[in-house]
C-alpha cells in the first residue's frame, strides 16, 4: 500500500479507515475487472440467436421471470460486482437507444475484453489497446455503412418491415407466431408513424396484456383499451358515436385548497347547505349533458349520488382512469382534458365511433374498448397468452419488434443478420489492421477476432460446429465478395441471408459496436479498485 | 484469476444440466402431487392452512390444491400458474393440465438424456400439439341447432365434470341444477347472476335451484313478512345521518337549545328523504348501506319492507333480477325504474331466515341453495358446482363437445403417432414422446381407479385402431366401454385449453438453461 510520510515520519492518512478497505491495483485490477465482465457475458452468451436458451430468474419476492431478453436478464440479476453493473448499464443503454440487440452488445463487449486480456498479458499498455479498439470500431462502423442496403417500403408495402421484425422475434419464445406478431408490430408502428418527419412516438402504442386465451388471439386495436368498466353496473355496455368528455375533476363537492371551515350554527344554514350540495351534483351532471357528451371518462371517483344521477340521465361514465391512459384517450379521440366543469365546451369533447365493454373468461374481468377514434394515431396491442410469464415475455418481445420497426422508419438502411455483418466487419478490420504502424495494429487485429465471436456463439447455440461453420462462411464471403453469407441457424440449408430473410437494422448494429467499445475502453482504463471491506 | 463475487450474498445460480434437472424435478413433483386426484376415482387432499385457526380444506380441485401450496421451485411455480389460468379461463381441467405438462417434461428429460437438444424437442412438441388439436377438431360433435340434443350434451358434460367431485353421488341432480342455471343465462358467461348460498344441515340431495332470488337477510321487526306484487326500490344511499358532503363543514353552536334544533333539522331531513322514497309508491326498499333505527321505524310505519346491508353483489344481482335500477337520489320518482316481483316472503332454510323474491321479471338470475352436512362438504360442493357452471357456460358459447374417459387422448395419441412416423429427423422422437405423454392421462385415470392400466390402455389402443371408435375407459365396470352409450362428454374448449397451455408451459421450462435466484428480500426487523 502506498504510504506518504510527513517530516516527522508519521504516515498521512489518505483514505479513511485505510486498513478496512480492500484495494486492487495495476494489472491485477484490470484482470479482475475483465474476468467479472466476462462472467456476465458468459451468462448471456447462450441466449443469443434463434436457438438461444432462456433464463429463469427468481426475484427477491419469489416472482419468476422467464426471458431471453438480455436487458431484462441483467436488470433482474441482482449483480453486486461493480464491473458487472457496468455491463448491466451497457445493455440498458442499448435498450433505451435501440431497443433490440441487448444480448449481442454484452456478448460483443465480453469478447473484446477477452482479447484485451491476452494483449495485456503480452505487456501492451491498456491505453494503447483501448485506442486500437477505438480505431477498429471506427473502421467497422464505416464498413457497415458501406455494406448496408437501403430498404424501400411505403405505407402500402410493409413486407420488408415485417421481415425485419420477424428476425427480431425469431429469437424469442413467441417465435411460434412471429409472423402474426411482426405484422401487428409493424402495423402499429405504421399507424402512429410520421413518415414525413421519419419519427415514431412509441408512447402512442400501448401494450396491454391479459392472461388467458392463446397467443394467436393477440390483436391490434385501432383505439384504446382501458382496464376499467362502467361505473354503474346498469349503464349501457356499448355506445355508438360517442362524444367523450375527459375530466380530471371528481364528481364531488369542491375542495378548496386553502384551509377553511364552514360553520353551521343555525337550522337555516344547515338546510341551505344541503340544498346547495344537491344542486352542485345536479349542475355537474347537467353541464356534461348540456355540451352533448355521451360518455364521461374521469380521472377521479364519483360519489354514489353523482353516479346515480349520471345513470339516471343516461350518461355512461368510467371512473378512476389513470393519467397516462387519459392522455392517450385524449390524443386518440381528439378531445381535450378538462380540469373544471365550467370549462366544458362541445369542442373539447373527444369523438369515438364505438365504445364497448367486453368481458373475459369466467372471472369478472371487463375491459373497455374505445375504437374508431377521430384521430387514429393511438393504437393498442392487446396480448393474450397462457400465463403471466408468457404475457410479460411477449410484451418484451413486442417492445423489441416495435423498436426495430421504428428504427427502420428513422433510417431505412439494413444489414444482413445471422452473424454475416460481424463476419464482414471482421474481414474488413483484419485487412485494415496491417496499414497501421505501431502497437495498435495488434489491438485492431484482436478486435477482428472479437467480432468473430458473435457468429461463433450463434453457431454454438444452434448446435453447429462453431469453428468449422465460421471458417466456411468466412471463406465464402472472401471468395464471392458478398456480405450476406451468415450462419444458418435454423437449418434451412442455405447461408444466404437474403434468401432466409434475416435482416437487422444498420443503426442497431452500429450502436452495438460503438457501445461495446466504449464500455471496454472504460473498463480498461481502470487501474485501481478501492472497495469498502465487509462490515 | 477467479471472479470473486458477481452476485449478491445468498443469490444462487444454477447452470446448464443442473438448472434443467432442478426445474424438471420440481415440475414433476408438482404433477405427481395432483396426479392422484385425476379422474372419477381420484382421491382428495386435506389442506391445512398455517394461518390462524389452522382451517382445513378437503378438495380434489387441482387449482385449489396448487393455490394453497407454498412453493420455492421456480419451475413448479410455472405449473401452478397455468393451473390458475385454466381455472380462470375455462374453470375445469385444472388437474389435467398440470399432469399433462408434467408428463411432457418427464418425456423430455429422457430425450435430453439421449443428447437431443431441447430446441429440437420443443419444435417436435409444437408440431405434435398442432396435429393433436387438428385431430380433435375433426372429431368434435356440435349439436348447437338441435335444442334437445344440445341440452342432453350439456347434461352429459355436467355429469362428467361432476363425477370426479364430491357431488358424484347426486351428479344427476346437480347436473340438472347446473344446466338449468346456465340455460337461464342465455349465452352470457357472466356467472355473477348465479348465486350460490351455502347452508349447513340436511343432505346434499336437499340442494335446490330457486328461480327467484334469495337474499341472506332478515326482515326488520314490525315490517310485513309477506308482500304480494311488490314494487322494489333498490338503492345505494346513506340512511344513517346523511352527512353534509361539503368539505370542512362542521357544526358549531353556542347552546344546548341550538343542538336540539339542529338535531331536529337532521331528523327532519331524514324524514323528508324517507318521504321521498315512500313517494315512489314502493312497498319494499333494499339498501346497500346501513339503515338507522329511525328511518327503519318510519318505513315500518308506512308498511314498507326495508332491508339494510345487502352486500354489493346482492344489490347488483337484485337490480338485475327485478329489473330495477340502483338509485342514489330520490328527487324524481317518476323516472326511477322500480323493480317488480310477485311475492316477497320470509322463508326458513334450516334454522336461518332468508328473504325470498319470487316471480321476478327477468329470468336471468337464479339462486342455488346448497345443503350439506358440514362446511367442508359445502365448500367442496361449491367448488365442484362452480367448475361445472364454468364449463357449461363456456360450452353454451362454444357448443363443440368431445367424448370423455380418455377418448380424446387416445384420438390425439393416434394422430400424433402417425405424424411421428411421417416426420424425418430427430423431431420424430419428440413427437413420439408427445404421444406417450398423452397416453399418461388415461393411464392415470385407470391407475387411480385401481384398474390394470397397462392392460386397459393396450385394449383401448387396439380399439382405436379401427375407424370411428368411441372407446374409452369405463371406470365403473373397469373395462373398455363405448363412451357414446355411457354418455361421458367433455367440452372441446376445455380439452383444447389443456393441450395448449400444457405444451406452452412445458416449452417454457424446456427453454431454460440457467436459473438465477436472487437473495430473498429480508424482512424488516420489527424489534
Automatic annotation (TrEMBL), chain A:
CDD domains: TCP1_epsilon. It catalyses: ATP + H2O = ADP + phosphate + H(+). Signal peptide: none annotated. PROSITE patterns: TCP1_1, TCP1_2, TCP1_3. SUPFAM superfamilies: GroEL apical domain-like, GroEL equatorial domain-like, GroEL-intermediate domain like. GO terms for cellular component: chaperonin-containing T-complex. Its main location: cytoplasm. InterPro entries: Chap_CCT_epsi, Chaperone_TCP-1, Chaperonin_TCP-1_CS, Cpn60/GroEL/TCP-1, GroEL-like_apical_dom_sf, GROEL-like_equatorial_sf, TCP-1-like_intermed_sf, TCP-1_chaperonin. It is found in: Cytoplasm, Cytoskeleton, Microtubule organizing center, Centrosome. Keywords: Acetylation, ATP-binding, Chaperone, Cytoplasm, Cytoskeleton, Hydrolase, Isopeptide bond, Nucleotide-binding, Phosphoprotein, Ubl conjugation. GO terms for molecular function: ATP binding; ATP hydrolysis activity; ATP-dependent protein folding chaperone; unfolded protein binding. Belongs to the TCP-1 chaperonin family. Molecular chaperone; assists the folding of proteins upon ATP hydrolysis. Known to play a role, in vitro, in the folding of actin and tubulin. Component of the chaperonin-containing T-complex (TRiC), a molecular chaperone complex that assists the folding of actin, tubulin and other proteins upon ATP hydrolysis. The TRiC complex mediates the folding of WRAP53/TCAB1, thereby regulating telomere maintenance. As part of the TRiC complex may play a role in the assembly of BBSome, a complex involved in ciliogenesis regulating transports vesicles to the cilia. Component of the chaperonin-containing T-complex (TRiC), a hexadecamer composed of two identical back-to-back stacked rings enclosing a protein folding chamber. Each ring is made up of eight different subunits: TCP1/CCT1, CCT2, CCT3, CCT4, CCT5, CCT6A/CCT6, CCT7, CCT8. Interacts with PACRG. Interacts with DNAAF4. Interacts with DLEC1. Interacts with SPMAP2. This is T-complex protein 1 subunit epsilon. It comes from Daucus carota subsp. sativus (Carrot).
TrEMBL record, chain B:
Its main location: cytoplasm. Transmembrane segments: none annotated. It comes from the Eukaryota. GO terms for molecular function: ATP binding; ATP hydrolysis activity; ATP-dependent protein folding chaperone; unfolded protein binding. Keywords: ATP-binding, Chaperone, Cytoplasm, Nucleotide-binding. It is found in: Cytoplasm. GO terms for cellular component: chaperonin-containing T-complex; cytoplasmic stress granule. InterPro entries: Chap_CCT_beta, Chaperone_TCP-1, Chaperonin_TCP-1_CS, Cpn60/GroEL/TCP-1, GroEL-like_apical_dom_sf, GROEL-like_equatorial_sf, TCP-1-like_intermed_sf, TCP-1_chaperonin. Molecular chaperone; assists the folding of proteins upon ATP hydrolysis. Known to play a role, in vitro, in the folding of actin and tubulin. Belongs to the TCP-1 chaperonin family. This is T-complex protein 1 subunit beta. It comes from Daucus carota subsp. sativus (Carrot).
